Task: inverse folding
């Protein structure tokens, strides 16, 4: 299958990419291309111009900056999954990266591309919400940083403007993180993905967040469940009780032939509970 | 507008004038005659088009040929790097890791990637690593057996 005809432009800097996005009509960014190219082959996307940012130097770094991880937009899923810095600082993020697609997909797909695409079945968005990530983008008006909670708008929609380019993602280091998913057996997109973050001090849960992807048009935070766990021990009983409230955040579930909305909400409860248990064990460790 | 692409495939450098919408798998198959790289699903699911791009396994149906400008590609034809078979090809031969053979080039390239990443990969890791490659003949048993045989665990 061939995409519809388009003109191709390779940008050598972020500034040049922004200029191209402003100047060229109907332009789309491509990096790893594992969201855009399949859509173009199916003619679901037919941009007149494609601006390739994959060759811009310095955008694929993964480093520890104090208490945070800073990951460049062009870091591939394989690089994030394999990174000792990520595995050490935020094991749940490494798990999410390793759960994306398959090794060939992870060798091409990038974190910036995944976030900009905002697929409801993507793995990263739930982790970004739960782990308190901040996404930095540069546009014609300069650089801005957006909290993940404000970044995702709806199905395939983010707050990014037409000529914005994501440059990096900042994620606070947190040992008590975990990501679990129920993959679609054919596509391996998340039917449900659960990202949990727990901090424990003196035997009590002092902070907790749970992001759920795959169920609704965008990933959501299960705030009622997370709040219910704070202020007591991270025991199996308390995690089970908190998990019973995950569905409160999922009032508009999507459904398809493989998994109805009700089944997805049920799975969110199951996977959310398991992710919380793993995160609690890691937080205590 | 067409673009000039310089690409090194199986150790030989060549120049091609390509439309931006040309996919890497079509450049390999149609322009270069390297039909060992098969196109199965054409939707980045089945893995039969897998090639090495700068040493990493990728699905060539989901890479634009222009994106491979200046890159090195290894296809099944060049994997052995000379006469005879690559050890992974030999392992597939020895263990009857194929029936119709359509998925085999992609399977072998991905299998090489799995062992490049972890030479002592376990059977479970090999099965997991092959998740992006679909075979509709064999039920995977002999494919996994082949990759296990090619890995360093086989000699334990």
Result:
């Amino acid at each position: 299958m061939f995409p519809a005809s388009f003109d191709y432009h390779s940008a050598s800097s972020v500034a040049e990419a922004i200029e191209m996005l402003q100047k060229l009509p109907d332009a789309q960014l491509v990096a790893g291309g594992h969201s855009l190219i399949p859509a173009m082959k199916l003619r679901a996307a037919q941009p007149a111009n494609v601006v390739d940012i994959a060759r811009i130097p310095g955008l694929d770094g993964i480093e520890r900056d104090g208490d945070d991880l800073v990951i460049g937009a062009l870091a591939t899923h394989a690089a994030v999954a394999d990174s000792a810095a990520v595995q050490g600082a935020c094991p749940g993020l490494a798990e999410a990266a390793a759960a994306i697609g398959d090794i060939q997909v992870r060798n091409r797909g990038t974190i910036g591309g995944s976030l900009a695409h905002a697929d409801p079945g993507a793995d990263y968005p739930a982790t970004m919400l739960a782990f308190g990530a901040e996404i930095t983008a540069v546009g014609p008006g300069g650089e801005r940083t957006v909290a993940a909670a404000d970044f995702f708008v709806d199905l395939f929609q983010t707050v990014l403007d037409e000529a914005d380019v994501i440059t990096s993602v900042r994620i606070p280091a947190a040992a008590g993180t975990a990501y679990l998913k129920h993959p679609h057996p054919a596509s391996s997109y998340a039917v449900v993905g659960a990202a949990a973050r727990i901090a424990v001090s003196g035997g009590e849960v002092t902070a907790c967040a749970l992001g759920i992807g795959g169920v609704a048009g965008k990933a959501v935070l299960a705030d009622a469940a997370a709040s219910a766990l704070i202020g007591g021990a991270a025991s199996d009983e308390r995690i089970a009780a908190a998990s019973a409230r995950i569905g409160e955040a999922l009032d508009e579930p999507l459904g398809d032939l493989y998994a109805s909305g009700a089944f997805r909400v049920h799975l969110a409860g199951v996977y959310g509970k398991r992710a919380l248990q793993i995160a609690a064990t890691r937080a205590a460790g | 507008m067409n673009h000039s692409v310089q690409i090194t495939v199986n150790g030989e450098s060549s120049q091609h004038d390509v439309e931006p919408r040309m996919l890497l798998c079509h450049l390999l198959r149609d322009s270069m005659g390297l039909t060992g790289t098969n196109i199965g699903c054409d939707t980045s699911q089945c893995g039969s088009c897998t090639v090495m791009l700068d040493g990493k396994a990728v699905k060539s149906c989901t890479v634009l040929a222009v994106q491979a400008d200046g890159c090195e590609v290894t296809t099944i034809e060049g994997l052995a790097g000379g006469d005879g078979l690559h050890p992974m090809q030999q392992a597939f031969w020895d263990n009857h890791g194929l029936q119709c053979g359509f998925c085999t080039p992609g399977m072998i390239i991905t299998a090489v990637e799995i062992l490049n990443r972890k030479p002592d990969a376990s059977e479970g890791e090999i099965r997991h690593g092959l998740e992006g490659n679909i075979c509709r003949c064999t039920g995977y048993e002999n494919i996994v057996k082949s990759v296990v045989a090619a890995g360093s665990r086989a000699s334990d």
About this structure: The radius of gyration of chain A is 19 Å. Chain A touches chain B through 31 residues (CB under 8 Å). The longest strand of chain A covers residues 190-201. Residues 7-52 of chain A form a domain with the Uridine Diphospho-n-acetylenolpyruvylglucosamine Reductase; domain 2 fold (CATH 3.30.43.10).
